[in-house]
Amino acid sequence: MATAQAQVLTNRTVVKFNLSGVVIKSYTAQYERVLNRHSSITLSASHSPNAPLPFKQTLLNLYGDNQDANRAINSTLFTKSIGTLEYRFYLAGHAPTGWYVAPFARYIKMDIDQDYTYTPSDGILHRANLKASFNAGGAGVLLGYQWLFGKRVGLDLWLLGPFYGTNIKAVFKGEDPLWPSLKPADKVKLKNDIDNAKLPLYTVQSTLALPLITVNLDGLYYGVRAFGLALAYSF
Predict the structure, then answer these.
(1) Which fold has domain 2-167+219-234?
(2) What angle do CA 66, 70, 72 make, to 5 degrees?
(3) What is the pLDDT of residues 14-26, one digit of tens each?
(4) Which of 1, 16, 55, 173 qualifies as a FRET site for 77, CA 20 to 30 Å off?
(5) What percent of the chain has pLDDT above 70?
(6) Rounded to an integer, what distance in angstroms lies between the CA atom of residue 146 and that of residue 203?
(7) Could you tell me whether strands 126-149 and 13-18 are parallel, antiparallel, or unpaired per DSSP bridges?
(8) Can you give the pTM of this predicted structure?
């Protein structure tokens, strides 16, 4: 037992790459430094360039019958950068292996690109490309398990990590090149359709100064880190 513990503490540094994130075009690297038998500090950096919406198929199943919603979901791309700092507590005292609980803090910067489409009374499809950027911070707790197979190679499983954060204020802006054909009733309907968009825990409010369309999104930064699998190398 003493030999095994000494071996664990000899390799105090673990570097990782998240394999599961590649499926959704999210690339995450992590650095972990063991402090003692029970604890470590990790720092992660994640980047998602021009990635589609997470759970895109789920959203299409819910709203795909609405052609405007279908086009919006399929056209939405985001570029996201995240930095995460966490303190890991290894329950069995064999850091960096075994079950761990990890309080964490994270910062996100996101750029979003989406085509907003609608069809007014003349039956002509309108397409406004909307763009937005925002920054936010949050904190949460992650439950996970880490293996080391032999002295060097291992796997890190991020099971469940809900987080909650600061308020998000995103301003989407875009232009409708076909705006001169809109009738007054079409403009009223367009604004009402945007303002009545149902997003849980978010409020949406639009301003039309055609050809410019401005949409303000206000709500909480929240989510879940779940079912991530990273390849680890210890030294």
Answers:
(1) Porin (2.40.160)
(2) 120
(3) 999 999 999 888 9
(4) 16
(5) 94
(6) 40
(7) unpaired
(8) 0.85
| SS3 labels along 46-91 | EEEEEEECCCHHHHHHHHCCCHHHHHHHHHCEEEEEEEEEEEEEEC
Q: What is the dihedral of CA 152, 158, 163, 166, to 10 degrees?
A: 40
Alpha-carbon distance of 18 to 231, in angstroms, equals 6
Domain ranges of the chain: 2-167+219-234
86 token code pair: 């966490």
- From its phi and psi, is residue 208 left (phi > 0), alpha (psi between -120 and 50) or beta? beta
Q: How many CB atoms are closer than 10 A to CB 91?
A: 12
pLDDT in tens, 53-72: 766 777 788 776 778 778 88
Residue pointed to by tokens 């199943």: 61
